[in-house]
């Protein structure tokens, strides 16, 4: 019968008169605390094992420069997961964005190199625009046609990647505006600009998710899509906007690819798809939707980058890093499961079970 | 009624001994015992949340009791698995049917017993005759090769019944088996129950239709709040006394609304609304300040009408006017914009975000109304709305930040109600507003509805709870097979009339 | 729809798929007569062997309501390890011994997936994403990362064995011997899914897990077995791949999982579980292979292959989703909600 009658009234501390959801805050706090601990532990671990290499300023700079592109992609993945979906096409979108910028730059630069340099901001916008377009396709397939996100984005991932292969002929494109490259090398007060970009992006995403009606709707949609519909929330609009935003973030990641490395190809960051899902889940995102924290995701990005560079510092291979990624992912899920004892899946009377796979 | 085969002289086929079951600190069953004898029908009665369903799950091995034991034919099963239960001849017809939507009717009927027999191979051709036999015995018109997915609710229920009967069950538990069935089908089921009794099968019958229960059973066991209240001969009980045992007090089915229909201006006018396969030519008017009851069997179209007015299931023909303005209701957002709110039947999955706070749930429907110039959520505004409704509906919770999952059924229902009141609707429809709600809360919720109506809203209550309709509605519409069969008004509204008109 | 047409269409639209495949073959043959030849046919069959073996494994998981993206890692792990062991140990392993070893490794790795998923009730996608990384990392770190150019003799012998050779010279058409085990596997699996209680249990679990539990089906055990079986099939596929490629590359296969999943979904399997058939999967794999083989023949650069498969997947699934939506609108009651949840 109704489960509510059987669940104990939980002793909830008076967390406030604020309308913000306490449970989500407790969950958020928990995942953020966990991430802070993990970041510190990971950092301390490698700092002790090989302080000379790991604590060198080059290494620290490296962590700060390599994190942003992954962090932005992870934020995009987090948004898709927040609605209970997933976006497998993000890396393909990012590559298309980078390829667009590089191609535009080269094409204009052939005739007028100076003009090409000065048009850099426009090219960047074009890259993000390509991301939006990719998001539009995903959003259309998911919200209008009604394809499951995992399949829709699996298809678009292939399609976008295929387009990139056709476009580049499978080769690596060279050429990117100097201003982008120098942006990638500049630091303000020792903090690389790219890292600032990540922080600003994270702040914007956090405001959208927590402080705007659309963000709240995204959370509700993920928490219970049926109840969201019955509350008059337009799930089509919510899903469309979610995938648009995640597409734009994918485009932004493409810009970050280029600023770090002035080349673009169809196959860059093939391993990021897995990595980004690992980060999102590690950062406290519920893969079934409804819960996520921006801070957690940013900290998770840092943790994994620290582990990656730490592995290099103590001379472990990228293969061992792959093992660590997988092990961390499963360990986090198992620990969550054991600690929370998830409720049994809700049942629907007699009709087809439509649990979201994944 | 045939004479009971004096069960007490024989040996019980099923004994339930001192079952205790707790869920995270809350006791669902507290030392419940009962005996079941071959050839009898035992009715298990109790309000929602009294522990009936938990007891059924324990008897069928789906849940394990904290303590106590299940004894089948004198053999104790401390840790019974579902397969053991089926193996020892216990079959359950679940309220939610528990069928496989992706398999055919025939396969659904035979699969369970094949699993219990530990069979390794499956033969579609070999199992068909068994399924056909039971369908014929019941005189049903079921397409054995159809996917269960494509069946109507009634056919699904019949499939679930066939499944329980196909193996030589010795104990059959029926959890609300007649909710979707017509009079004829119910009669046939009861005739079959009679035949099963003659064969020595013992049945446990769970239903909230008390007169039906008393007609079919020999003994009645009543549970209240996880405890055994009474077991008595059905002959010594009547619906009123059973209800008294269930609730622990006398049920008041007198009317608490005015006998005279309200004279306010019409807020909702429905003209000739039709949807093929669901309902046909529905016309009615709802006045400001009126509480209108809509009733009928499950599958009669009563829910579909509400869902059409809420834009979930757009009607094909007909006009709907709200405050005199014709409105188009193709999506839920159309309905919300027109000022129509809907508290759905399935509160847990359609009404609530269980893991989110009371506050989040309350403003889920009015987020856009609480928006600042900067297109962010107006935090002060939402706080005021939430506080106001929290106090007005007297929701019992430590604070608005508590997750809805921690609330009782009655309080959770108030949260859904609050979500809609926050949108300031002109028309509020409630489907089964007090299902799964304890008695005290039930009356309070009905009182809230009357108060909200009096304050100028039109309220539609869809329910098959006749006393509830009598208590709170000015008028009652009876839907039968998709058509508006009767409109009851004033003195015409009584529990007996409603029941008679619904089932006719 | 009349009964005959409905039957032809099949429970999972196999008929529609067959028609599409047929039209494609006819279209390609008209566009380029060279396409319609025994050698093209045989080479498409040859190219389908490994994807089919993988796809059949994925089909099992998908019917049971999950998804597996670690099978390619399991395949490489099992096959590469086997090749390495067979090549380095003194004791002759023989073909059967080699396959036995690979199957055992595959089953063990699949067991890891199954145990974690069933024991902790975790989402299959996330777990297999994790184990994919672990399996590949362990292989490359602790087993070997070197390309092995020559297989042990016993396996190398199979590489060049053909079942049929028709014609000679340019027009020679060869049918590789490994189509036999692939077909046998398909037949066996179809029988298992349709005629054994284990097979029906997989459908039941994919249809409604809680109902399966109530019906006395041992859900956890079945899930573990499914993943172990998938591990074994992946291992067999990995062995076939290396035998047919006459080399063992530890970097192979991983990354191509999504193509296989796409073929299975195109074949009519529902990503929500409970629906799918061996016949549909076979057709799905063939369709993808025909497209990959024929684009070049009709003058489309091979670079378009990925896009073509992606678009095909979107169209295939999109049509199903739209059809589901339409039929949901017809069947009233709350079916629509289920669709929306699904979407």
UniProtKB/TrEMBL annotation, chain B:
Every ABC transporter domain range: 14-250, 262-504
GO molecular function: ATP binding; ATP hydrolysis activity
PROSITE patterns hit by this protein: ABC_TRANSPORTER_1 (PS00211), ABC_TRANSPORTER_2 (PS50893)
Superkingdom as given in the UniProt entry: Bacteria
InterPro entries: AAA+_ATPase, ABC_carbohydrate_import_ATPase, ABC_transporter-like_ATP-bd, ABC_transporter-like_CS, P-loop_NTPase
PANTHER family from the UniProt entry: CARBOHYDRATE TRANSPORT ATP-BINDING PROTEIN MG119-RELATED, XYLOSE IMPORT ATP-BINDING PROTEIN XYLG
Name the record gives this protein: Sugar ABC transporter ATP-binding protein
Organism: Modestobacter muralis
